[in-house]
Specification:
heterodimer; A: about 400 residues; alpha+beta; D-amino Acid Aminotransferase, Chain A, domain 1; Dna Ligase, domain 1; Rossmann fold; 3 domains; 7-stranded antiparallel β-sheet; 4-stranded antiparallel β-sheet; about 35% helix; elongated; B: about 300 residues; alpha/beta; 7-stranded mixed β-sheet; about 20% strand; globular; disordered C terminus
Chain lengths: ~400, ~300
């Protein structure tokens, strides 16, 4: 039988199984990346304390802008962006913004920059358009606001163009976008150069998003990036060792950090039913089936193909470290993964961790009969085998409701 | 009949000399797949359990008449390997490798799109299985029997789950195709559904999608216009939170796009019945095909 006949099986975390989420950069790190390609910006620096913020403002001059650095939009509306004319005002705003919660993201870093006079606010972006299988370059003269709103209210105000990656981005593309968007005639050339630079940064840094909103035109007719939203492809980091250091885990959840260190694919959710499964699709499906049965999953955890007993024990440890978890569902279809290995992992984990919540175990596929025998033989309290995925979901939801503790 | 792989498949494996490559290639050979060659630069002249290894795809094709490639090399070398297979005239390329950089996938897609004689399945996929004929990849073939249900999926284990439930109801498969969980798959649902529509062995198509992108919506539009066979759908990740990558690089709801409910709505609007759980998918398929199917070896 395939996948069941070799003691030395390929494990799930080999070089072929490296998984990576997109890497969103904080504004100031995005600006560092764009600066490498010569994108013009106003002088500024990051600050992590109130004193540091004042020092940066003194250095760049007044009026100064204080901006919260979080990986979520709507900072201005939340009070995370303020203008300061004096050191006293910098101190006041920095004190308020540091530690502020913006839609679940705590502010740990500020960006302090010299404010500038602005004549126009544009929008420019290069997006990895997966549906079109091509980079999408966008330009609008209605910048500084939510671009999805602009696209909805004034569809003609957003000029867009797909670039053939084998041809690249050429000056005529830039001119076409600039004239279609209706940028001021005297800055067509400069805005076009900016688009070319953003495209270069997008391809050379292997980004999936480079967005500048607003792209400003100053009274001196300079074109500058006042903001930067850059998302890098984690799968390409082996070609960009410098960029790997730009990742920061300040917003990371305790369990997610723990899982990352163990090489597990884990996403924290807000429910109370721990989920263990193999294969991203099956795990997503398991979350849905649990929700369908009236429960709320506490996490997504994909143990990958061919997971071994020790990896399973590590996964269980991560799941149980979330204090909200009231019951755990193991839903495994053994292909490369052997169900008897999973059963051994569950038994080991149970003995080491002595969980206080019930486990519902549904194992199907390769070596499932042996797996069920192992579990039955171990005779663990509060471990409930189930034959089907739907039945297992209903059982775990009922157990979580009852609040059974072992 | 069946699609993509069968008795005429002559398989060359990139990465045959690696641990995972040799393990799965030999599994494929034991299943009956005609594994004719391996490609590993610098190891030309060696063999793996009797399968000759060549330095380049061109040499492998010239010496063995290979027509199908399986890519089993690490992500940093995978794009090069796929482009080399295309350059050597391979018609069907199955890329198992997970974690290929997105910009590499963009390049591969746009190069291969210009060649009407090549088809890429994957990357980041479990491969293609035509039960009783050939297995190219890592699909556990023991669970599947020949039959009349074609399956196309973005997920491996979910495919096994659905396929196994169909098997328990007595149904087998024409071909099972994993198109992979990456943002830029070489073949889409539309491509594979079109092949199943033209395949006489396939009487029903199961399409298992997930959140992220718009491949399911595109498939719905295509099915409405071009597909006469019944299609049963599934979409995983309905309850996934926006902005989070759910294991597969492509499985992410971004802003207003990629959500599961919109995909289900698009499919149902064109008459595709969508199961809410994998078990329901199997039940619907059995209902359409009528009772417990014994129409194997169609």
């Amino acid at each position: 039988m395939i996948g069941a006949c070799r003691p030395e099986q390929p494990r799930g975390r080999g070089p072929l199984n490296y998984r990576a989420p997109p890497m969103d950069l904080l504004e100031y790190k995005g600006k560092q990346v764009l600066a490498r390609h010569g994108v013009a910006q106003l002088p500024g620096r990051e600050a992590t304390t109130v004193d540091e913020a004042v020092a940066v403002a003194e250095e760049v001059g007044y009026p100064a802008i204080i901006k919260a650095q979080v990986k979520i939009g709507g900072r201005g509306k939340a009070g995370g962006i303020k203008l300061a004319n004096t050191p006293h005002e910098v101190r006041e705003h920095a004190t308020n913004i540091l530690g502020m919660d913006i839609r679940g993201h705590t502010v740990h870093v500020l960006w302090v920059q010299r404010a500038s006079k602005i004549t126009s606010e544009y929008y420019a972006a290069v997006v990895f358009d997966r549906a079109a299988k091509a980079p999408l370059v966008m330009l609008s003269t209605k910048g500084g606001i939510d671009i999805e709103q602009v696209a909805a209210d004034h569809p003609t105000a957003l000029a867009t163009l797909h670039v053939d990656p084998l041809v690249g981005f050429h000056p005529f593309h830039a001119r076409r976008l600039a004239y279609e968007a209706g940028v001021d005639a005297d800055v067509v050339r400069l805005v076009g150069d900016m688009l070319a630079t953003l495209y270069e940064a997008f391809t050379q840094e292997e980004a999936t998003l480079v967005e500048v909103n607003p792209l400003v035109i100053t009274p001196e007719r300079e074109v500058m990036a006042l903001d930067a939203k850059v998302t890098l492809d984690d799968n390409a980091m082996f070609r960009h060792p410098d960029n790997a250091a730009l990742d920061d885990l300040i917003d990371a959840d305790e369990q997610e950090t723990m899982a990352k260190q163990r090489g597990l694919t884990y996403v924290k959710l807000d429910g109370d039913i721990g989920i263990f499964g193999n294969g991203a699709g099956l795990v997503m499906s398991t979350l849905d089936v649990v929700a369908h049965a009236g429960g709320r999953p506490a996490n997504f955890l994909d143990a990958g193909g061919g997971a071994k007993a020790e990896a399973i024990a590590a996964s269980v440890e991560v799941i149980l470290s979330n204090p909200n978890v009231k019951a755990v569902l193991f839903n495994v279809f053994g292909g490369i993964t052997r169900c008897d290995e999973v059963a051994r992992g569950i038994i080991d984990a149970y003995e080491i961790l002595k969980p206080r919540v019930p486990f519902v175990v549904r194992l199907d596929g390769t070596n499932d009969v042996e797996a069920r025998e192992l579990l039955a033989g171990a005779n663990l309290p509060h471990v409930y085998p189930e034959a089907t995925m739907d039945g297992a979901a209903e059982r775990v939801v009922a157990l979580a409701r009852e609040g059974v503790t072992a | 009949m069946s699609i993509l792989v069968d008795e005429s498949t002559r398989l060359v494996v990139a990465g045959l000399t690696g641990r995972e490559g040799s393990y799965h290639a030999m599994n494929n050979r034991r299943y009956g797949t005609n594994v004719v060659a391996g490609v590993t630069p610098g190891k030309g002249g060696q063999d793996v359990e009797g399968v000759p290894v060549f330095n380049t795809f061109r040499e492998a094709v010239a010496a063995t008449g290979a027509n199908t490639a399986m890519i089993f090399v690490p992500p940093r070398f995978a794009a090069d390997s796929i482009l080399e297979a295309e350059d050597a005239g391979i018609a069907t390329i199955v890329a198992i490798t997970e974690g290929i950089p997105a910009h590499d996938e963009l390049l591969i897609y746009n190069v291969l799109e210009r060649n009407p004689d090549v088809r890429l399945i994957g990357p980041n996929c479990p491969g293609v299985l035509s039960p009783g004929k050939a297995n190219v990849g890592i699909i556990p073939a023991a669970f599947f029997k020949p039959g009349n249900v074609g399956v196309v999926s973005r997920s491996g284990t979910l495919t096994y789950q659905i396929g196994n439930e169909l098997a328990q109801s007595g149904f087998g498969n024409s071909t099972i195709v994993g198109i992979g969980g990456d943002p830029v798959p070489g073949s889409s649902f539309v491509d594979i559904v079109a092949l199943f529509e033209d395949d006489p062995q396939t009487e029903l198509i199961v399409m298992s999608g997930e959140i992220g992108g718009s491949a399911e919506e595109e498939a719905a539009a295509y099915i409405a216009e071009h597909v006469s066979k019944p299609v049963v759908g599934y979409v995983a990740g309905l309850t996934a939170p926006p902005g989070k990558t759910m294991g597969h690089a492509g499985a992410i709801v971004s802003g207003s796009s990629g959500g599961g409910q919109a995909k289900i709505d698009a499919l149902e609007a064109v008459g595709v019945r969508v199961g809410r759980t994998p078990t329901q998918v199997a039940h619907i398929a059995v209902e359409i095909l009528g009772g417990s199917g014994v129409r194997q070896n169609a």
